[in-house]
Design a protein that fits this description.
The chain has helices at 3-23, 48-68, 73-99, 106-113, 118-126, 135-156, 169-175, 179-194, 202-209, and strands spanning 30-35, 40-45, 129-132. By secondary structure, the protein is mainly α. The longest helix has 27 residues, at 73-99. The radius of gyration is 34 Å and the shape is elongated.
Length: 210
């Protein structure tokens, strides 16, 4: 695989994994049906606190992908390592969402019931029926994919093409290989004008240069 293709694949993988993780936050992770004598309401959430963490990690990963596009060799390793940490963060946050889906209903139930203590809120949630979707698992997979993309970045970074340079030294050096000769020619031409000669005349020009 060409160096350019390696770079494109790494950046694209990071973008897709981060985008997939953030996409899950637009979908319901769990639903709570609360039907008791005191409360009658249905709730849904998209990750709760875990979703907030995933959103932050996802945005940071998108920024990392953009930075990789222009980063030098050393910073590729730095960004790759940070991206790996972001992938682990998404994986851990998604795991928390999968392991404790009731936690995502805390804020809504607290606001609805007026009960502020966590134990009371948990007791109310326990009276309802909770159903979960596959989106937390998708977020978990996205976190793993992001970590793998970061590993790919670290492994292949040394083979990526170098960034383009703004200036080409060869072109600047070839503009004037003998600047002192050109400067002498200008002085000689001014001297010829002062003497009343035409510096554009070929005979005079040869005389001046001699």
């Amino acid at each position: 695989m060409s160096p350019k293709r390696l770079k494109q694949l790494a950046i694209l993988a990071i973008l897709l994994a981060a985008g997939l993780a953030m996409l899950t936050l637009t979908q319901p992770w769990a639903a709570l049906g609360l039907h008791t004598q005191e409360f009658e309401r249905d709730f849904t959430h998209s990750g709760g606190d875990a979703g907030t963490a995933i959103m932050g990690f996802g945005i940071a990963a998108l920024a990392a992908a953009g930075a990789l596009a222009i980063a030098g060799r050393f910073f590729r390793y730095v960004i790759g390592t940070l991206t790996f940490v972001l992938g682990v963060g998404i994986t851990v946050a998604a795991s928390i969402g999968i392991g404790d889906p009731a936690a995502g209903f805390g804020a809504e139930v607290r606001q609805f019931s007026g009960i502020t203590d966590d134990a009371g809120v948990r007791e109310i949630i326990a009276q309802g029926a909770i159903s979960t979707s596959a989106w937390p698992l998708v977020a978990l997979i996205a976190g793993i994919l992001l970590s793998l993309a970061a590993v790919w970045t670290i492994i292949t970074a040394h083979r990526w093409p170098q960034g383009s340079r703004k200036f080409n030294r060869t072109r600047f050096e070839s503009v004037s290989e003998h600047p002192e000769i050109e400067e002498n020619d200008r002085i000689s031409q001014w001297d010829a004008l002062s003497a009343g000669d035409d510096p554009t005349d070929s005979d005079n020009e040869n005389t001046i240069r001699r």
